[in-house]
C-alpha cells in the first residue's frame, strides 16, 4: 500500500480511497453485465478527482488495473460517504450532509479509519464479510482502538487453539469478541468451557458463538429447557458438548418437536440425544412430511421396516426424493405431489398419498 501511494504521489487525504478500493477488489464479485467497457483512468478522474496524469499512472497499478466494473469501488465510496468520510474535493466538510444513511460519530472520520480497514478486511477475508461484521457490531468495530482492544482480544482467541480462519468466522457472527473489554472476552471463553467443551475441542468455537451474547443465567435456562426431550442432566451435558447449537432451540420449538418425535414418531429420548441435529430440523418443513412418507411406504410394503427414521431426515431434499420418492412413483403416483404439498405446510389432517382404487393404505 505504501509503495502504491509513493508510486501515485498522492497525499494522505486520498489514502483511504485507494486502501479500501484495493481491498474491495481483492474480493471481486461476478463480472459486470454492463456492455460498456470500464476505463479505470476515466473513473479516477471523474469519481476520485485525480488529475489526468495521476489517473493514467494509477490505472496501470496492479491494485487497480484489473478492475472491470465500477461496482466495487462505487460501493466502497458510498459506504465511506455514509460514514461521514467525504471524497477528496469535499475534504473541508466537517459533518455528513443532512439525510445521509448514517450520521456517524466524529471519530469515524478520523484518519485512523484507514489503518482499521487495512486490518479488518484481510482479517475477515473479504470486504463483504467485513461489512457483515461491521453491521452486526452496530459499527462498534470502527470505534474501538486496534492496539489496545482488538488485537489483544484476537490474542485471547488464539490461546484457545483457534486458527485464524476459525477466529474470523466466529467474529463475523459475534463481533463483540473483538470490541469488548478483554476481561469480558475471557469471561465468554470461560462460559464456553463451563458448558463442558474444552478449548481444544473442534466445536469450541461454535459454543463460543452461542455464549458470547448470553449470561450464565440465560445459559442455565437453555440447559434446563433441553430436559423437555426427557433427557437427564448427563444426557443434556452430552448433547451440548457435541452440538452446542442445541442451546439455540426456543421453548416453543422444544415442546412441539419433543412431542412429535417422542409421541408421534415413537423415538426414545436416548435415540434423539445421540442424534441432536434432529431437534434443529424444521418440524413442518422436514420432520413431519418425511415421517409420513416413510410411514406410508412401510405400511404398504414399499420400504423395509429396518430403515432408520434419522436416515430419512438427515438427507438433503434432493437426495431424499431420489431415495424415497422416485423409486415408488409407479406404485404411489401421488407421493411426490403430496410430499411437496406437505413441505409447503399443506399437511391435511389425514395424509392422503394413495390413488383411489389402488388398494394402498393411507396414514
UniProtKB/TrEMBL annotation:
Stretches with biased composition (Basic residues): 88-97
Any Gene Ontology biological process: DNA-templated transcription termination
Region (Disordered): 82-107
Top-level division of the source organism's lineage: Eukaryota
Keywords: Transcription, Transcription regulation, Transcription termination, Transit peptide
Pfam families assigned: mTERF
GO molecular-function terms, A-Z: nucleic acid binding
Signal peptide (residue range): none
Family statement: Belongs to the mTERF family.
Protein name: mTERF domain-containing protein 1, mitochondrial
Source organism of the structure: Panicum miliaceum
Amino acid at each position: 500500500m505504501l509503495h502504491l501511494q509513493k508510486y501515485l504521489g498522492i497525499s494522505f487525504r486520498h489514502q483511504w480511497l485507494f486502501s479500501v478500493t484495493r481491498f474491495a477488489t481483492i474480493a471481486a464479485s461476478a463480472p459486470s453485465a454492463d456492455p460498456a467497457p470500464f476505463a479505470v483512468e476515466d473513473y479516477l478522474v471523474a469519481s476520485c478527482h485525480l488529475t489526468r496524469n495521476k489517473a493514467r499512472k494509477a490505472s496501470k497499478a496492479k491494485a487497480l488495473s484489473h478492475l472491470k466494473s465500477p461496482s466495487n469501488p462505487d460501493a466502497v465510496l458510498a459506504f465511506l460517504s455514509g460514514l461521514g468520510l467525504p471524497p477528496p474535493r469535499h475534504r473541508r466538510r466537517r459533518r455528513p450532509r443532512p439525510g445521509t444513511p448514517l450520521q456517524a460519530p466524529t471519530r469515524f472520520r478520523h484518519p485512523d479509519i484507514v489503518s482499521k480497514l487495512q486490518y479488518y478486511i484481510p482479517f475477515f477475508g473479504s470486504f463483504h464479510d467485513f461489512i457483515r461484521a461491521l453491521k452486526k457490531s452496530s459499527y462498534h468495530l470502527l470505534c474501538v482502538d486496534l492496539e489496545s482492544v482488538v488485537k489483544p482480544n484476537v490474542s485471547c482467541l488464539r490461546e484457545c487453539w483457534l486458527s485464524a480462519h476459525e477466529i474470523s468466522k466466529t467474529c463475523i457472527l459475534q463481533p463483540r469478541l473483538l470490541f469488548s473489554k478483554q476481561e469480558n472476552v475471557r469471561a465468554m471463553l470461560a462460559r464456553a468451557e463451563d458448558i463442558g467443551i474444552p478449548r481444544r475441542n473442534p466445536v469450541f468455537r461454535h459454543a463460543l458463538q452461542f455464549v458470547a451474547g448470553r449470561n450464565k443465567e440465560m445459559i442455565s435456562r437453555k440447559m434446563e429447557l433441553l430436559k423437555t426431550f426427557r433427557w437427564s442432566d448427563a444426557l443434556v451435558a452430552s448433547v451440548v458438548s457435541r452440538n452446542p447449537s442445541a442451546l439455540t432451540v426456543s421453548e416453543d420449538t422444544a415442546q412441539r418437536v419433543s412431542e412429535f418425535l417422542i409421541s408421534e414418531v415413537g423415538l426414545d429420548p436416548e435415540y434423539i440425544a445421540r442424534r441432536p441435529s434432529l431437534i434443529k430440523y424444521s418440524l413442518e418443513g422436514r420432520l413431519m412430511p418425511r415421517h409420513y412418507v416413510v410411514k406410508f411406504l412401510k405400511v404398504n410394503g414399499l420400504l423395509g421396516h429396518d430403515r432408520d427414521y434419522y436416515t430419512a431426515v438427515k438427507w438433503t431434499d434432493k437426495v431424499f426424493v431420489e431415495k424415497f420418492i422416485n423409486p415408488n412413483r409407479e406404485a404411489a403416483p401421488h407421493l411426490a405431489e403430496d410430499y411437496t404439498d406437505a413441505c409447503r405446510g399443506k399437511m391435511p389432517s389425514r395424509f392422503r398419498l394413495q390413488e383411489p382404487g389402488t388398494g394402498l393404505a393411507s396414514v
